[in-house]
Amino acid sequence: MSIAVVTGVAGGIGKASAILLARKGYTVVGMGRSSSPDLTDFEGLDIAYVQGDVSCPEDRAKLLETAADAGDITVLVNVAGVAPKVRRDILEMTEESYDFVMGINTKGTLFLTQAAANMMLKHGKGGAIVNISSCSAYTSSTSRGEYCISKAGVSMITKLFADRLAGTGITVNEVCPGIIATGMTEAVKEKYDRLIADGLVPMGRWGTPEDVAKTVVALCDGTFGYTTGTSLIVDGGMHIRSL
What's the predicted TM-score (pTM) here? Predict the structure, then answer.
């Protein structure tokens, strides 16, 4: 039985990825910080929910132990991520905010990947690791510098593990979403509605969690079996520079 571990499954990209992977035939073990998430979308699907925080070593261990009890882990999708609680200019950014964002987005991703990769190597069946980074990994937003730095870190984590695991049958790639309609972007909806209307996104619309999840599944199911260390940009063309 193929087990897929997915973080951030309480909503957005994580929930969409868990659902599509389950429909693809994976047994999914997901983790989220919420103690009472709305999981009605999981009904009828082989998805187990573990409450926990990816920045906490004990919670990471609990997640992987739960998954290992169900079978061999062959997929890890690192989705869990947070934005700063308060947007501040880079000149005013606090260490507390930096530590909060980095702890989940970067440190949590790094050490969960390390632990899962070692488990995959032990069972020897190969696997796929997919990290959700962001267009913010390469796009400056001076009012949320800690988020940009954290996602740039995820990009390097992807490259490091792809390099280390190349040849073992484990691929490691990342997806860089653009402006996606999730709980994280609700607070700035009016801003991005205006920017999209003004042409920021060539395809002319918000992205959906499902847009990203479809890419995640393709990176997990062998469609891109000869691809590792790569970043797939899912942003409706926002990254295109044109005159």
Answer: 0.96
Give Cα 2 distance to the centre of its chain: 19
Asked whether residue 28 is assigned to any structural domain, the reply reads: yes
Catalytic residue among 98, 138, 147, 192: 147
Q: How many domains does the chain have?
A: 1
Q: Considering the domain boundaries, does residue 81 fall inside one?
A: yes
State which residues form the domain around 33: 2-182+209-234
Alpha-carbon distance of 146 to 81, in angstroms, equals 12
In a domain, 87, yes or no: yes
Is 147 annotated as catalytic? yes
Which amino acid would we find at residue 197? Answer: A
**229 lies in some domain:** yes
Q: What is the pLDDT of residue 13?
A: 98
pLDDT at 183 (0 to 100): 86
For a pLDDT cut of 70, what percent of the chain falls above it? 100
High-pLDDT (> 90) share of the chain, %: 96
- For position 121, which CATH number holds? 3.40.50.720
Q: What is the mean pLDDT of residues 154-160?
A: 98
Residues in Cβ contact with 69 at an 8 Å cutoff, skipping those fewer than 6 apart = none
